[in-house]
Amino acid sequence: MFDTGRPGGLHKRIYSSLLHAIISGRFAKGAKLPSEPELAKIFSVSRPVVRQALEKMRVEGIVTSQRGSGTYVAGLDQFAASVLPTVIDSPVHAKGMLDDLEFRLITEPAAAFIAAKRRGPHDLRNMEAALSQFENAYASGLIAHHYDFLFHEAIALATTNERLVAAARSVEYERDDELLLVRHLVHFAPNMRGARVVREHRFVLDLIQRREPEAARDAMANHIEASRQRLIAFLGRLNADLGKESPKNGASNG
Q: How many CB atoms are located within 10 Å of the residue 34 CB?
C-alpha cells in the first residue's frame, strides 16, 4: 500500500509515503486513509508521529479529518497551486524529467522485447489487470499514474531480469513526488492526450501477448518518445506563458 522505506525523519517519511500514494492515484479524492493506529503499525512509529505527518497534510489542504470518522483525501488543488510554479520554474526539475524519459527510452524498449519472449500467463494477467485499472481510472477522471507504473513494472517483471525491474522502479521512487503531478498534467490533461496514452499502452500489450518482440520493442520506443515529446511541448507552453525560452529536444543530453 505504501512505500515505507522513503528517506527522511520519521514524520517526513510518513508524509512522503502518504503524499506519493495520493499523487500517484492509489488514494483518490474522497478516499479514506487508514486510521492513525493502522498507520502507526504500518510505519512502526508512535501515533504522535503519525499525527504530525497528517497535520502537515491538513495544513496543505491535501487531507481533511472528520471527528469520529477518520481522515479523507481532500484533493491536490491547493497543494498543486503552491508547488507547481516552483517545480516548473526549476531547470533542474525540467532536466530531471527529461533525463528520466531518456533513460526509459534506453531500458524499456529492451524490456518489452524480452518480455514478449519470456512472458507467461501470470505476467499477461498482471499486465492486463494493471492496464484495465489504468483505463478505468482514466475514464473516471482519476489520477492513473499508479496503474501506469504497475503496467510498466509488470513488463519489467516478465523479463525476469532484476536489473530491468530495478530500472523501472528507480524512475518511480527516486524523484520528488511533486513531479508526479507534472507527469499527470503532461499525459492526461487535456483529456485527448490521455486517450492517446491508453492506446499506446494497449498496443504494446497486444504485441507482447502475440509474442512479437521486435514490434513490441518498437512500440514501446514510440510510446516513450511520444511521452518525451509531450513533456517538451508542455514545458514549452508553460515557459512561453512565463516569457522564457522553450526547452529543446536535446534538453536531456549532457
A: 17
Angstrom distance (rounded) from CA 201 to CA 218: 12
Q: How do residues 138-194 score in pLDDT, each as one tens digit?
A: 887 777 778 888 999 999 999 999 999 999 999 877 666 666 666 666 655 555 567
- Alpha-carbon gap, residue 106 to 104, rounded angstroms: 5
DSSP code for 192:
H
The CA distance from 155 to 108, in Å, is: 9
- For residues 51 and 36, the answer to whether their CB atoms sit within 8 Å is yes
Q: What is the CA radius of gyration of the chain?
A: 19
Q: What DSSP character marks residue 1?
A: -
Which CATH architecture fits 10-75? Orthogonal Bundle (1.10)
User: Identity (one letter) of the amino acid at 49?
Assistant: V
Contacts of 160 (CB under 8 A, 6+ apart): 118
- The DSSP output letter for 189 is S
pTM of the model: 0.71
Burial (0-12, 13-18, 19+ Cβ within 10 Å), 169: middle
Residue 208 contacts residue 158 (beta carbons within 8 Å): yes
34: preceding bond cis by omega (within 30 degrees): no
**Please, what's the largest Cα pairwise distance for the chain?**
57
Domain boundary assignment for the chain: 10-75, 81-241
Return the CATH number of the domain spanning residue range 81-241. Answer: 1.20.120.530
What cell numbers appear for 40 in the block?
A: 502507526
Alpha-carbon distance of 124 to 158, in angstroms, equals: 8
Which residue shows C-alpha cell 514501446? 220
Question: What cell does 236 get?
Answer: 514549452
